């Protein structure tokens, strides 16, 4: 899950980036309204955490610009505690939820994951397909034989992307965009290597290769 974190406070941004990454997100950061607006329109994000107080503008204007361009990714707005008008204005501008500062990271993660589940039409923090069950909280996979397998961070993100839309073809480029942020420089063979590792857990039939096009998780319910 690739996420955009819009926060101009360097310390807060670094802390959140670390915690979001540990929770299975691939994080890009923006510290200004201009940069946030550009990245939101250029990249494919599954969700956005948006602080309203930015040095060169208001986060609400950024949000309005995204929504005017028909960008529908879930947006969690960060507001000052007790500033109810910010909350109202944020929801009117197209925000999906809000969280008042200071906040506990656990609550931010819970709200963020709930937004993403709703955007995917799910209610549980588990992805299921063809007898496979991916636990998003514990980052582990239960296979149809009932065995449970722990996953590395990259394995989890890749499998989550594939299992989120069983039967859909994902190109290498699409998968790389969801697994790595703008500062990373993965090699062309990275996806192939991780697919090989996942197939040792899922079996070769669950993840198929369409030569020259990409990969499909084809274990349908």
Shape: globular
Strand order of the largest sheet: 2-1-3-6-7
Record field, number of beta strands = 13
Parts with pLDDT < 50 across at least 5 consecutive residues = none
β-sheet strand percentage: 15-25%
Largest sheet: 5 strands, parallel
The chain-level mean pLDDT equals 90
- Percent helix, as a range, is 40-55%
Distance between the termini: 22 Å
Count of separate DSSP helical elements: 8
What series of H and E elements makes up the topology?
A: EHEHEEEHEHEHEEEEHHHEE
Derived from helix and strand composition plus strand pairing, the structural class reads: alpha/beta
Radius of gyration, in angstroms, nearest whole number? 18 Å
Annotation keywords:
single chain; about 220 residues; alpha/beta; 4-stranded antiparallel beta sheet
Structure description:
The protein has 221 residues and is of the alpha/beta class. 41% of the residues lie in helices and 24% in strands. It has helices spanning 10-22, 33-42, 59-68, 84-93, 105-119, 153-164, 172-179, 190-202; strands spanning 2-6, 26-30, 47-51, 53-54, 57-58, 75-80, 97-101, 126-129, 132-135, 140-142, 148-150, 207-210, 214-217. It has a five-stranded parallel β-sheet, sandwiched between helices. Strands 8-9-10-11 form a four-stranded antiparallel β-sheet, with helices on one face. It has a two-stranded antiparallel ribbon with strand order 4-5. The longest helix is centred in the middle third of the chain and has 15 residues, at 105-119. It starts with a strand and ends with a strand.
């Amino acid at each position: 899950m690739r996420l955009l974190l819009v926060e101009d406070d360097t310390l807060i941004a670094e802390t959140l980036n670390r915690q979001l990454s540990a929770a299975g997100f691939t994080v890009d950061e923006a510290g200004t309204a201009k940069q946030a607006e550009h990245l939101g329109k250029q990249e494919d994000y599954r969700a956005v955490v948006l602080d309203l107080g930015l040095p060169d503008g208001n986060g609400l204007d950024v949000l309005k610009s995204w929504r005017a361009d028909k960008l529908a990714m879930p947006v969690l707005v960060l507001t000052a505690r007790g500033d109810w008008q910010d909350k109202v204005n944020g929801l009117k501008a197209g925000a999906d939820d809000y969280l008042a500062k200071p906040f506990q990271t656990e609550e931010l993660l819970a709200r963020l994951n709930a937004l993403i589940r709703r955007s995917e039409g799910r209610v549980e923090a588990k992805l299921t397909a063809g007898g496979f069950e991916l636990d998003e909280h514990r980052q582990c996979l239960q296979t149809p034989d009932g065995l449970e397998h722990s996953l590395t961070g990259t394995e989890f993100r890749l499998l989550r992307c594939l299992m989120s839309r069983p039967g859909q073809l994902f190109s290498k480029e699409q998968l790389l965009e969801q697994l790595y942020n703008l500062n990373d420089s993965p090699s062309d063979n990275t996806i192939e290597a991780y697919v090989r590792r996942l197939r040792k857990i899922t079996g070769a039939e669950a993840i198929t290769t369409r030569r020259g096009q990409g990969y499909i998780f084809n274990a349908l319910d």
